Model the fold of this input.
Amino acid sequence: MAGPLDIGFSLISQPWALLVLSLLFVGIYVKYNSGPRFANPKNLPLPPGPKPLPIIGNALDVPTEQMGQRLKELTEKYGDVVYLDALGQPMIILGSHEAASELLDKRSANYSDRMPSVMRLISGWEWTFVLMPYGLPWRRRRKELHQFFHPNAVAQYQPLQQRECLKFLTKLLEKPETFLHQVRQSFASTIMRISYGVEVAEENDPYVTAVEEGVATFNLAFVPGAFLVETFPSLMRIPSWLPGGGFKRTAAAWQKIAHNMRDAPFEKTMESMANGTAEPSIATVMMENAMNRKDADLAEERIYARDVSALAYAAGADTTISTVQTFFMAMACYPEVQKKARAELDAVVGPNRLPTWEDRDSLPYIAAIAKESMRWQSVVPLGVPHRSLADDEYKGYYIPAGSACIANLWAFSRDPKVYPDPETFNPERFLKDGQINPAVQDPNTFVFGYGRRICPGRHFAEASLFIMISSILHTLNIDQATDEHGNPITPKAEMTYGVISYPKDFPCSIKPRSAQAQTLIYAGLKA
Done:
């Protein structure tokens, strides 16, 4: 399968390569000669940044790997707002939470758009509001999703979250070596019930597989700079069968996967509605509401219901999956954290029940572990770039309309002025006198995004994370695995690269904390 930047320059002597190069240079020429670069009526300076080269600008300064770390180096050198010109595309790198909050939160009316994306249209993700330009289709989908995931609505899901957590703990007792997979299975099962009213199979469920395959393509397709056609749409003129047109073949394969993720479980739920066996869900509620309105266009409402149901998985679930997997890594590396957590759980919850969301205010150390799990390995390194709709001014600098604005969340989580010794997993950084310290920045203020583009599923994700982490610590011991010689295997704090990062596979030892804890799990599942 063709990959990012598949342009085939190594075969430049071939006739077709001349077509590729011609289209590329036409694209560059158009970007630089289709009118004035910037209006800039006040003649303000652009934000500082590395000196651009002729034609290609700062294209060589835009990293293609370890982007969070490389962009952090740029903002450390030039300041918390850096300007890059990548092949004619203005880019604003935001290196501090202060700058990101000022522009993307406080000025969200101007910074809620998304960059135009060819890959969104050809890879099957035209329906996701995460990438949609700011406008009515985006607002409608977000409004619908919000009604199912605002704080009051999320409370109705807590019994389901507790139940799925018990199933998860049971699987860890029976198959502890599959813990990374079981994290995914648990959250997929929960979301499938909420979105479609579907009870998924414990293993190899086709709908869970469809969702995981779909999210995997998203994670590859929309990393900034992954596909050159995003910068030069003229490359769409290259036939897919020519070298250099491989991105089209990739996108066509991904389109089938993304549409299957969106369509398959929804069609199953529509069949269940037709025969009267559907369980309540986002899909059924939206369709029933539409059918009860005399003026509703049912064909259009069906599209909205289909899209919003599929979007629910992206509303915090995948971020939470990565955070829980990161939590396991941290517990294997920091046993003293587990010890302190259990002392708090024993004092507040006791041995005869599992913790619930209602215990959260009484379990500040557990809440701090959840926050530190969000911060420690930067689950969403860069998020999805915002786009400025109009010219703007910030701290005396000119920000052109159409700029790609990238908030370096990876850097925010590692700011030593905010989080001293940032590479260490230390929940106590969020505590003062045994309580959550409001003076320390909560990672949730940036992990879930900014402004009108903030993740609508953040409240659901926060509840899921607390329920899962507190229940695991109350019932299980997490230790480092050992090799064939009995030596401990310390997990490496390494993450995959994508829009969402996940811990690379690592082993750990998971055992019941006690016979009583094991009984508590099984008894809770039978209740």
About this structure: The chain has one domain: 41-526.
